[in-house]
Amino acid sequence: MTSVLKNDLLLRALLREPVPRRPIWLMRQAGRYLPEYRATRTRAGNFLALCTNPELACEVTLQPINRYPLDAAILFSDILTIPHAMNLGLEFEAGEGPKIARPVRTSADIDNLRVPDPTQELRYVIDAVALIRRELQGRVPLIGFAGSPWTVGTYMVEGGGSKTFGAIKRMMYEAPRELHRLMALLAKATILYLNAQIAAGAQAVMIFDTWGGILNPAQYREFSLHYMAEIVAGLTREAQGRRVPNIVFTKGGGAWLVEIAAIGCDAVGVDWTTDLATARKLVGSQVALQGNLDPSALFAPPETLRAEALRVLTSFGSGPGHVFNLGHGITPDVDPERVAVLVETVKNFAIAPGA
Q1: Three-class SS of residue 48?
Q2: ω before 292 within 30° of 0 (cis)?
Q3: pTM score, two decimals?
Q4: Contact, 10 vs 23, CB < 8 A?
Q5: Would you call 32 a catalytic residue per the annotation?
Q6: Could you report the per-residue pLDDT of 298-344, keeping only the tens digit for each?
Q7: In the annotation, is 28 catalytic?
Q8: CB within 8 A of 175, min separation 6: which ones?
Q9: Strands lying side by side in the sheet with 142-147
């Protein structure tokens, strides 16, 4: 874990320090679009077995780093590790996504929940972080992550994925105090979890608020942003003599970028529905920005993909504080060669000296 970091562009860009070029990493860069990932997952038996095996989680985390000259690795895990540790009966059904056998719907259900000890019930994640850091040997920084309380809570209350989010929205209107109790418990669990990842070697952390965008503005502030602000305030900010930057990303959160930037995070993730120039105008020099190519651009012919990537790069403008990424995760049906084109395009984009 003490290896000298050979490429710290991501950490510098997240802290709005000058960098010679834009760093790039991609959400879901380790995943089903890679044949080597599919082979490892087959060996593991199923997705959950892959997540809970530190050696295999390390292997798939490193696969995109070995294939592409990316500027960061992101821990291979899932946003539902906390409910899994709460013994809610998490399973991933083929083609169906996550299912939770014991959804959390009543006051008594919330009473029965316990904040997991990351060094015990989530030990497999912490061991994976330590192993990945060791195996990276300082090549690039390692990003740890967690789901936001609101996003994780949607799965816990709905019992899985949802199109209407009827169960959690019903709770929000009928029993807001109970929902706040659940969010507060998840915020506490997430602070412990992310800090344990940092202690094990994560050099930056990200909060994924995948479903914040389904809320109206007042609900977003009350049930999502408030608890992400709590988490940011509780995070370890320095480890091994270096600042540990954090990124907050709400999918569909373009209308709330100013409010997200104000919670004390270092960087805000931007999805592809907001222009980066607009986002930058809104947040000014308060935070770095991460994003925001439409993941579907990876289906485009190489010349179109290059043009789209350059459009994103130029839309940010000059100066520090941009990490190139997709506006959401890579989809499984993407050709790995297109990812190579994208990474090469971003790495070859020259920025002014000192910018």
Answers
A1: helix
A2: yes
A3: 0.96
A4: yes
A5: yes
A6: 999 999 999 999 999 999 999 999 999 999 999 999 999 999 999 99
A7: yes
A8: 107
A9: 73-74, 142-147, 204-209, 246-250, 267-269, 288-293, 322-326
102 is catalytic: no
The single residue of 21, 38, 41, 123 carrying the catalytic annotation is 41
CA nearest 342: which of 291, 292, 314, 308?
308
- Dihedral sign (CA 199, 248, 19, 295): positive
pLDDT digits (tens, 9 = 90+) for 73-119: 999 999 999 999 999 999 987 777 899 999 999 999 999 999 999 99
37 is catalytic: no
Say if residues 67 and 33 touch (Cβ distance below 8 Å).
no
Domains of the chain with CATH codes: 35-277 (3.20.20.210)
Which residues neighbour 141 within 8 Å (Cβ) at sequence distance 6 or greater? 5, 7, 8, 10, 11, 71, 72, 73, 203, 204
